[in-house]
Amino acid sequence: MQIKTLILGAGAAGMMCAAHAGGDCLVVDHAKNPGEKIRISGGGRCNFTNMYATPENYISQNPHFCKSAMARYTQWDFIDLVTRHGIAWHEKTLGQLFCDDSARQIVAMLVKELRDAGADLWLQTSVVDVRHGAGGYTVRLEREGKPITVTAQNLVLATGGKSIPKMGATGLAYDIAQQFDLSVLDTRPGLVPFTFGAERFKPLAGVALPARLSNARASFDEALLFTHRGLSGPAVLQISSYWHEGEEITAHLLPDFDLFSALRDQRQQSGRKDLTTELARHLPARLVEDLAADGSLKGRLADQSDAALQALCDRLHNWRLKPTGTEGYRTAEVTLGGIDTDALSSRTMEAKAQPGLYAIGEAVDVTGWLGGYNFQWAWASGFAAGQAIATSA
After folding, report:
1. Up-side HSE of residue 329: CA atoms within 13 Å toward CB?
2. What is the rounded distance in angstroms from the CA atom of residue 145 to the CA atom of residue 36?
3. How confident is the model over 160-208, as pLDDT tens digits?
4. b/e string for 67-106 if b means 16 or more Cβ within 10 A?
5. Contact status, residue 130 vs residue 156, Cβ threshold 8 Å
6. 197: DSSP letter
7. 154 strand-pairing partners
8. What is the pLDDT of residues 256-275, one digit of tens each?
9. Smallest Cα–Cα separation from 365: which of 156, 64, 106?
């Protein structure tokens, strides 16, 4: 079988690329259904983009790499596509856009787009071997137990990263990239919960509150959630992408609330109240109990000097925590690192030294924040490669 373009991976980036690659295109995936990560995202409603997506919301060894693709296919372009397909959507928070009904609508939209563009989709198809020669890329596939050899002028790596292996995630894109001498940067889990030893936060499992989590590289104000194994919630997932093993993070509890003034005012009005009782008006009661376990939160409000109240607030605003690790690729939403952007054209996603080889989406060293940013990179990079392929000889 001979075609112009073979796309490995029927995820967000791969299907987007196929929709714009100009036909004579085949998309293959080992899964039973296309777009499985789309289907499970956003609690089944798919946080498909973010109204505020800019290159500053992405992590990469080359922070400028994503600018070209994102300028040519913006969040507004994808919103327009969704609207044209009659998919109702809403903003949840912080520019995060979700389907009103189901993430399956986004999958169905992409499948229709690629098929309307003249592309084929093969599922339950595995890649056995990839070679390159005078005739292009020769890829041996296995489909429903039968061997098939496909020769293609263009080969697109859109198989994603290592996150969520239970859905079949592998390092296939990295292996093929290295086979053709493309540099692959070290990978690690991103947007992932932290773990702590000795069941440190098990008594607080389920407790949530607003917080500012920060380190030397970044700071995020969102919800913090205590779990049986450690910390999760949007603020934790965000800062995890900027964290390296062995480092501390700082939690600023109640970042938008003047706790010192509130405690001082209550000391004047209700000095007989126990300090922990007053704290429990502003913080979850179970968290107050945990903080008081070392005996540092004793006495009535009237017994607390300004200095003591300030010291308490400083403790809550500068709570230093040292995770033992993360939950790993098992629960990570994305993979940091991957195919080195220095090996790719930022305009076309094509390998500079390997004509006809493209890499898009999560397989590339471009990782977005939580909140629809990674899907926007998938749409933008897929569009860039598709357009380049469509206009190539």
Report:
1. 17
2. 22
3. 999 988 888 889 999 999 999 999 999 999 999 999 987 889 999 999 9
4. ebbbeebbbeebbebbeeeebebeeeeebbbbbeeebbbb
5. no
6. S
7. 5
8. 899 999 999 999 888 888 99
9. 64
